Amino acid sequence: MLVHREKKSRYQIQMPLISLIDIIFLLLIYFLLTTNFMVDEGIKIKLPQAKTSAPQTEQEITIYVNREGRAFLENREVPLGNLFERLKEMIGGRKDKLVVIKADRSVILNKAVKVMDVAKAAGAGRLCLATEKEF
Prior knowledge:
The structure is a single chain. Helices cover about 30% and strands about 20% of the residues. A hairpin with a 2-residue loop joins β3 and β4. The model has no long low-confidence stretch (mean pLDDT about 80).
């Protein structure tokens, strides 16, 4: 009587791809959630540079002055005559409200100072001229 042994199949080495794919997807989700999606503001200005500038973290009223000297409040152009009334409404009676002037670096200084005067007359207790950090 002839006895045949059953052939044993050799083990094949397989990498666990399912767990690797799960890790890749988790990393992808992590990076998508932690990425800061910044939206550029509508008015293109180049801020003056300073070595000692610091980031502002509190809520403020922002006035933009472009290179032609036109003032923008909340991305809407406002003539200097109407700027006083609009700022007075936004400031209300709060003397500690911060008003930030973001003037283009090529604007004539006199136009930025006029906007600062209007803001001070409207009741702004604190004024700040925005700069960007010089590298």
